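Ticket #4471: complex job returned nothing on first submit. Input attached below:
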Amino acid sequence: MLSVQNVTKRFGGLAAVKDVSFEVETGSIVGLIGPNGSGKTTLFNVISGVYPLTGGTVTFDGRDISSMESSRVANLGLVRTFQIVKPFNELSVLDNVVAGAFQRCRNRDEAEDKAMVAMKMLDLAQYKDTLAKNLTLAAKKRLEIARILSTDPKMIMLDEVMGGLNPQETEQLVETVHRLHELGITMLIIEHKMKCIMELSSKVIVLNNGQLIAMGTPQAVVKDPEVIKAYLGADYNVESY
Amino acid sequence: MRSFLSHKKSDYFICAAVMLLLSLGLLSSNKYTLDILITTVYFCTIASAWNIMCGYTGQLSLGHGAFLGLAQYTSTLLYTKMDISPWLGMLAGGLTAMLLALLVGVLALRLKGPFFALATIALTTILEIFAVKFDGITGGSVGITIPYNPSLGNMIFKDYQPTYFLFLCLLALVLLTTIYISRSRLGSNLVAIRENDLTAASLGINVFRNQLYALMISSFFTGVVGTLYAQYVLFIDPAGSFSVIVSEKAALISIIGGAGTVFGPLIGGILLAPTEIFLRTWLGSTYQGAYLIVYGVVLIFVILTIPNGIAGTVSAYIRKCNCKTEQASGDD
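Support reply: We reran it on our side without changes. The output follows.
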C-alpha cells in the first residue's frame, strides 16, 4: 500500500532521514521505532507531505505522492496524527471530528452521523459538546484518532498516540487500534512503548540517526544486537509499558 | 443531532426577529432617524461580509475598502459614463470586487497574520493612488458626483425608506449566507483553518483554496453594499471609497461584536454605528476627531475584558449554563 524508496530529507547540512526504504503491505500494522531524534517524525512529515523530500520517492496506493501537498495526500486516504496533539481547541469535540468527516460528506447531518460513529469507536461520544481544550491528554489523543478516522482513511499513521498515557489508558488504546485494524485500515505506528509495538505490529522498522538499521518481525528485531545497542539497551524487558 | 437542528432554527429565528425589529424604521419618515438607521445597517452589512472571510478563517484583512471602492467606481462609472442602470452596476461592482479578490488572494493568501493585514492595507492604498492619478476616467481627487435623477431604474429615491429597505434586504442576504456557510463544509473547513492550518491540511482541507473562496464571497458582498451606499450618498471620491478607516471599522465592529459568530458583526454594528454618530455630533463641534479617541478606548476595553467579543462571550456563557443543567439533570 505504501512504498518508501531511498527517501532522504536534509535540513541544510543535516540529514534527518538518510536513504530509507521500506514497504507497508495492505492490511498490515508496521511499527516504527528508534531513539529520540532518529528521524521517525520527520519521516512521517515527509510521507504525509508536510515537508518536501530531498530525494527518493513515496508511492501510496499505486500513486506517486512524493511531491504532493498534505491535503492531497489526505484526500487519497493517507492521514496521520501529530505527536504533540493539535486539537481545534476552541471547537467542541463533535465539531473537531465533523471537520474531518466533512472531507467525505456533502451536508452537515451526514457529517455529524459519520463523526458520531468515529467518536463512539474511541469512547468520546459523551464529550461531544465539550470544548477540545478541556479534555484530558488521553482523550485528546483519542480525539486525534477519531478525527482522522472520520475521513474514511485507507491507511493511518499514528505518531506516539500512547505517549503520556497510564498503563490502563494504554491498554484500552491498544484494544481500539486492534479494532481499527479489523476494519481493514493499514497502519504505520511510531511508538516508544515496546509492549504495544510487540503486540500490534507484524513488522518493525528501526531508525537510528536517520538510517534504517533493522527491519523484520518484532521478535527478530528485539534480538538484533545493533537495535539493542542503539535503542533498547542491554537490560531491555518487553513486559513493561 | 436534535441540538444541531434547533441551533440552526434558532439562528434563522434570531435573524428574522432582528430584521423585523430593524424594519420598524420604515415606519418613520424622519430623515435624520433614517440616516442613522441606514448608516448602522450599512456598517452591519460591511462587518458581516468581512466576518465571512476574516472572522471564520482568522485572517485579518484591513483592506476591505479596496473591494468596496473598486465596486463603487465600477457601478458609478457604468452609470455616469455609459448610462447603465445601477441595478446592473451593483452586480457588476460585486463581480469586479470578487475578481480583485481572486487576484489578490492568489498572491496574498500565502501570507499569514500581520503580513496578510499589511498586504491588504497596501492594496487599498495602491487603489486609492490609482483613482487619484487616472483622473481622466475617475475624476481624480475631486471624485464623481452622481446626478440626482430620482427613479427606481436609477436606484435613486426621493425618500429614504426605499434605500433603507434595500440595505435591510442586503443585510438579510449576507446574514442568511453566513448562517448557511457556518453549517456547511466550507464553514467547517474555514474554522478548522483558523484553529490550526497545519492540522486542517493534514485532514485533507486545501487551506489556500478554502480561504480564497471565503475571500471572494466576502468581497462580493462588500462590493455590492458599497455600490448601494454610493447610490445613497450620490458621491464618491478616492479618499472616501478606498478608505483604510472604513476597512478598519469593518474589522473593529466584528471583533467587538464577536468575530467568527453569525451575529457578532450585527451586534457590533448596532452598538457602535449609532454611538459613533452620536459622539461625532456631540464632540465634533468642539473637539474635532475626539470621537476616535472614545472609539479607541472602547476597543481597548473590549479586548482586555472580553477578547472573544460580545457574541463569543455570551455563547460561551450559554454553553456553560447548558453544561451545568445537563450535569444537574444527570445527577437526578
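The mean pLDDT of chain B is 89. Closing as resolved unless it happens again.
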